Amino acid sequence: MMSKTVLCLTLFAMVGGAGSAAAQPRRERVRAEARERREAIRPVLYQQGRDEQTDRQTKTLKLGTDGELALGNVSGEIVITRGNGSEATVEIVKTARGRTADDARAMLGLVEVTVTERAGRAEVKTVYPQEQWRRDNRRNVNVSVNYTVTAPAGTRVTASSVSGGIRVTDIKGDLSATSVSGAVRLANVGRIGSAKSVSGDVEIVDTQVDGAVEAASVSGSVLLRKVNARRVDAGSVSGNVTLQDVKSDRVEAHSVSGGIEYSGVLAKTGRYELNSHSGDVRLLVGADAGFELEANSFSGSIRSDLPLTVGGRDGGDRGNRHALRGTYGDGSAVISVTTFSGSIVISKR
Hints:
349 residues, 24-stranded mixed sheet, mainly beta, two-stranded antiparallel ribbon
């Protein structure tokens, strides 16, 4: 597969380079042709999505109070909330868009939702025609499926979607939620195995768990608010990582090009590692906190609004330094903050 760099250089060479006067007419011609193509296909795209047909059905699943539910979707939303009793209900809404109403109705039948039950476990899965079928029939299947689920509070849930968001509320069983291009939002849940998205945001709020919380995104932001857990691991490649009102003995927050903010209680003997390559890092702690700090930035500034003791002397605000080590209060917690080109700020909540 051609890398992005090679592809960009290839396209650059095809239009003759940005600084070439001879290339200017060629670039204008390429842009004009692209505009003409976009205008030509606009009516076709509109016509293809003009008619819409919907199929709606509801399934009742006998899971018991602590059963297991697996949901697998391709295009569409998954919403799960707490219900009453020992049964789960799944509302399945398929929506097809086509050139005509008949075309849309025909596409509805091409996408199947399979439901499999056995001994307190159920699997609900969206099944599209195989790639070979689509190639042979030369047909795009424009169908999305939304799942709206109510389940007993103790249900163990695994939910995944390729192109769609996942939202889970008030479920206390083991939970794993992953999406490729949708957001993952969890509220008041009990045990989190993982909460991940490739290009969507990940958000966990109002949650108290006995074990660990792991939240990650590649190009989206990660937000944890009012979360209490033994260990927290939150990271993003190009998005911001924000931890607000978090209480944990062990916190690892990391981003490559996004900023990091931590605001929460520092546990006695707790350890907190905040790392970003090119983003700023901001740490807000209570006045009664005690910690030992090691902060490093290769090209950014470091500022502490709290009076740190550095080498037996009052450190205070040391200004634009690239490394800072000091102690505040009883020094019981350990904080490590690193950024390559961003700035670091330690201040009072």
